[in-house]
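If you are new to this repository, start here. Below is one unmodified record pulled from the training split, so you can see the exact layout before writing a loader.
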Amino acid sequence: MDEKLKKSQLARLSRIEGQVRGVARMIEEERYCIDVLTQIRAVRAALDKVEQETLGDHLQHCVAHAFHAGSEKDRQIKIDEILEVLDSRRR
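And here is the target side for that same chain:
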């Protein structure tokens, strides 16, 4: 993973961690359900962004390398991995 992206992702994940703790506090304080649900959606959106950027980095580096310098087996492994990740996202 690119060092700049890695740093950005770790910072984003730290913020998400804080958001999750905030949601837990909201539940402990018995805050209005819609407010809790709104914050849960925000956490999901933030995680989706981390996932999207990580997938993009994987495609640009790992998959591209397999297609330029790897064997047919390496290429097929990368294709299978991506299909599995995309399939699991739908569940």
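Two things worth knowing about this chain: The chain has a mean pLDDT of 93. DSSP finds three helices and no strands in the chain.
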